Amino acid sequence: MSIDLSKMPKIGFGLMRLPETDGKIDIDKVCKMVDGYINAGFTYFDTAYVYHGGNSEKAVKEAIVKRYPRDSFTLATKLPAWCIHSFEDRDKIFTEQLERCGVDFFDFYLLHSIEDGNNYDTYEKYDCFNWGIKKREDGKIKHLGFSYHGTPELLVKVLDKHPEIEFVQIQLNYADWDNKIVHSGELYQILADRNIPIIVMEPCKGGKLANHDDECQAILKGVRPDKSIASWAFRYVGSLPGVTTILSGMSTQEQLEDNMNTFKDFEPLSDEEKEAIEKVKEVMFRIELVGCTACRYCVEGCPMKIAIPDVISAVNTKRKFPDDIRPNFFYGGLVERDGNGKASACIGCGQCEGVCPQHLPIISIMQEAAQKFESK
């Protein structure tokens, strides 16, 4: 039986950051968290073939499948492009996932991390979309979708080509809404305009939005002293129309309880609270950013074929979030996938600076980019 995607639980249990003891998943702790989650009326569990080195799917079997009736929860997992090297690999991986999890079918199945380049090309090369449709027809998958880390342009292309897709999972949070690498706001709008159900990952940006500095915390607590800092990030995403489920990679009982308190009687953000978040973003992004307008006047004449505005986008994101690895992947794609020159290839000819309407010190910015993205 299919699931009404509009009535899914707002908070999903992400099984990517499970508690560990001595380097191994602590099943006893996971069981306790699963019990609290299910007893509170929530049902959506999200894992993947590669989480915890494959042990996340095994934890599903021990902590959930063996302990609860199959119709009391829904389970999502994912097919990884980087593990597919033949048509046979699709079924090999899928069969292994069923065995690991101890189930006969998956409620939700995703093509993992579609993005420009290798991943998307692999899914097309091995006909994974039609393969997923066949699995759905056979009852092995109830709902077919994909998780996404690519550009808005590619998302439109994929959705146009594959109307069979029922839902899409994207990274979405208030810090990344205008991020020119993550594209949270643009991706959300594309999906919302098409009425495609949205599952959200990284609502707290890997915990960064749950651990603000004192100034940002004071802004939020000044408006709602009764709400945790993390709850603001979840409520921001949960207030957006079209968002069905928000994943949280919970690794402690405290995180679980805080999230359940947020979603038990969900309260959308008020206008005053939205203004508070905008103030927090101003503080977060107070760091000096490169004022590039992406006019691209600098690109055509670059003798080293450096995609200068795109490199600057990566630099700006890295300045804002030094620990974020997405800018590194983005930069790597510019060079390795798209064939652009490395920032370190800049010869300092000054052609770019001579045509830049913003009069940016592009040569020194390329040196910064080389240090951020090319140094070992």
Class by SSE composition: alpha/beta
The shape, in one word, is globular
The CA-CA distance between the termini, in Å, is: 51 Å
Taking all Cα atoms into account, the compactness measure Rg is 22 Å
* CATH topology value of the largest domain: TIM Barrel
Quaternary organization: single chain
Describe what you observe in this structure.
The chain is α/β, with parallel strands linked by helices. The chain folds into two domains: 5-280, NADP-dependent oxidoreductase domain (TIM Barrel), CATH 3.20.20.100; 308-374, no CATH class. 44% of the residues lie in helices and 13% in strands. It contains 15 helices and ten strands. The protein has helices at 27-39, 55-65, 87-101, 118-125, 128-137, 152-161, 184-193, 214-223, 229-238, 253-264, 271-284, 308-320, 326-337, 351-355, 362-374; strands at 11-14, 20-21, 24-25, 44-46, 74-80, 106-114, 141-148, 167-171, 198-201, 243-248. The strands form two sheets. An eight-stranded parallel beta barrel has the order 1-4-5-6-7-8-9-10, surrounded by six helices. The chain has a two-stranded antiparallel sheet with strand order 2-3. α1 (27-39) packs across α2, α12 (308-320) runs antiparallel to α13 (326-337) and α12 (308-320) packs across α15. The radius of gyration is 22 Å and the shape is globular. The N and C termini lie far apart (51 Å). The model has no long low-confidence stretch (mean pLDDT 93).
